[in-house]
Amino acid sequence: MRIGVDLGGSKIEAVALGGDGRELARERRPTPRQAGPAPAEAAATYAAIVQAVAGIAGALERETGQRGSVGVGIPGAVSPATGVIKNANTTCLIGRPLDRDLAMALGRPVRLANDANCFALSEASDGAAAGADVVFGVILGTGVGGGVIVNGRVVAGRNAVAGEWGHNPLPWPDDDERAGGRLCRACYCGKQGCTETFLSGPGLSADHRAVTTEALDATAIAARAEAGDAACVATLERYVDRLARGLASVVNVLDPDAIVLGGGLSKLAILYREVPKRWGRYAFTDRIDTALLPPRFGDASGVRGAAWLWAEGEMP
Question: What is the pTM for the complete model shown?
């Protein structure tokens, strides 16, 4: 049995999968929240998170009557240089040896991976891109992330940042999109013009507001575009072209067999119709045979991918 845990900012979700990928049990609990910025509070919250993950895995084992391997998807990565967590938006995890602490709490080795990598692994294992050799999994949500899977394995990279296309500049920008342009925004990473600032849900809303002065979220923009609102149609037109540019640059570097979209914006049907019509304008090839796919497991892909971090024959 494989246990996958999705460690989110507000909830911890876990699933137990049989050897064939069939779901055996599922649990969900709130993530312990940090009360304040003090180091002691961060340490207490971190300890509570470790115990919560161990507890939810134990609950699945009691429910199924089986012992399982444990994989955990996290909002960050393990630094190859230090062995501790970096780049986590759950900040109490930063600088902590989470894999080692979880292994001690659970009495077995634990594997960690970035949550975007877990999404990609799920869809490559038994999801929309099952059977493909090279898969790029995309998160289009509050942020923009990605994960690379080759022959069923996560490619984390030497610096544990493989797939982080959201923090590259938007490719082939026009004057409005370049640094200093009216549609170029600062990214939380400290740079300007990152792909994430254009292709995330908040980025889509900010772009619409900058052009129209209307404050609409991504869902409202999509609904009004569907109803024929000209301004919202134009906003989605800009979004589609930017996504085509961003993914064409991924094709130029990785040349995957399939790209699977996840996150809230992956529900926009227009992306699957229009992006493949446009990305050929930008990629360095005569045609693109890469498949652009919606996810099979949707919001459940991250937790399933965490379970798949242990391959057959590797499980402790």
Answer: 0.90
